[in-house]
Amino acid sequence: MADKEVPLIVAKKTPQRNVTLDPNGFFVIEVNKQDQAIRAEYYTNVYKGNKIVSGILKAVFIGKKADALCDTIAARVPALRKEHYMYIGRELQRAQCSLEKNKPYEQGGC
After folding, report:
1. Residues whose CB is less than 8 angstroms from the CB of residue 79 and which lie 6 or more positions away in sequence, other chains included
2. In terms of Cα–Cα distance, which of 30, 98, 37, 35 is closest to 65?
3. CA 103 – CA 71 distance, rounded (Å)
4. For the segment 68-98, what is each residue's pLDDT rounded down to a tens digit?
5. Could you tell me the pTM of the whole model?
6. Kind of pairing, strands 26-32 and 51-63?
7. Neighbour-count burial of 100, counting CB atoms closer than 10 A to its CB (0-12 exposed, 13-18 middle, 19+ buried)
8. DSSP string for residues in 21-80
């Protein structure tokens, strides 16, 4: 056991206005009910001045399970911000749940 007290940290959601966009790109996640698959498209950012205005499609990931997609994305797109990986994991889990429960899926914001 440790000699000093370990801090208890209460979790809180980062407000949308405080989210830093990933300079290495973004993902568009969709569910295809007919194929029973999740599709995650990875885009690198296109800037106009300091603002992201578009993206260039670099890879498309397809799978049925969030964990497999997360592992594959982390291996193939290694330079994302850690917060971005966590967001992608949450979204892919939501997408998987929508497939399993036959519910609609819409990608949420950061």
Report:
1. 24
2. 37
3. 24
4. 999 999 999 999 999 999 999 999 999 999 9
5. 0.86
6. unpaired
7. exposed
8. PPTT-EEEEEEETTTTEEEEEEEEEEEETTEEEEEEEEEEEEES-HHHHHHHHHHH-TTS
